[in-house]
Write a structure and sequence with these properties.
This protein is an alpha/beta fold and 318 residues long. The protein has three domains: 46 residues, no CATH class; 181 residues, Rossmann fold (3-Layer(aba) Sandwich), CATH 3.40.50; 75 residues, Helicase, Ruva Protein, domain 3 (Orthogonal Bundle). It contains 16 helices and six strands. A six-stranded mixed sheet has the order 1-3-4-5-2-6. It is elongated, with a radius of gyration of 23 Å. The N and C termini lie far apart (59 Å).
Length: 318
Amino acid sequence: MATADQIRSLVKAYSQHDDQKFKTVVLQIVAHEAKLGHGSFAQELKKDASSIGKSATIFKMQNSNPMLQMSMPSVELTELFTDDSVHSKIERILLEYRNRNKLYKSGLSNRRKILLEGAPGTGKTMTASIIASELQLPLYTVQMDKLVTKFMGETSSRLRQIFDSMDTSAGVYLFDEFDAIGADRLMDNEVGEMRRILNSFLQFIENDVSDSIIIAATNNPKMLDKALFRRFDDVIHYELPNDAQIKQLFDYKLEGYQDGSICSKEVIEAARGLSQAELTIVAEDAMKESILYGKNFNSLMLISLLNDRRNNYVSREA
């Protein structure tokens, strides 16, 4: 149950007619009860507290929190060209969120703390946009350059502000390039302040019982601290597109701009090793040329664009 200090704070907030402070203390009690394993009671109390005070809105929060960039994406799951297993996991997240109240009644909680890992350009950031779009929630992207500072203790304080925002403004919160704060604490070059930041994140995410969805994305999963993985409800792995996904992407993007089927064996071969993001850029370049020169595209022209893309980016990795 609530501690003596929390009860005292509740009474003080009530006597001062401070709805926001009252709600903050109630949410602290919710976190405390959830940590004790009283999940069903915590969720019921949180639901009751949702009507306390109406001063915080997503737009006011956005204006006062420069660490968060808000957007309202409009992206469908059909636009993500990746493995069926990835689609299934995303659909499960959406299903559980839409039925979260039904789960709460049985003392269960929906998947809402998700780790995305895989090569750059394979759909991790897009997944966050899809989840926000499908659930009609705002997407808040954490601005890492404004979150992480050189001053001791300041980053942890800013991190707390972000998690406080999750309580007052439900949405999808994306920590992109997550290894910036989630690096393994045992790494030789790790400094004490970064360890404190990671410890703070571990504490905040474990105690978080908001209705927001937390998504962390990384290109370097091997760099992450092992303690992180058990804090997430699900981990989704992203791969470079296979031959079938390459064909699906080009057929979808170039519909109306091509003469018949454009994905010949040679096109598929030229596209292998490029990410979904790079293939999308190639498809958009193909559409531009079709519009500018007034003609449909063919396989040879697409292969030329693919080779240019590979030469400009892939060969420079050496």
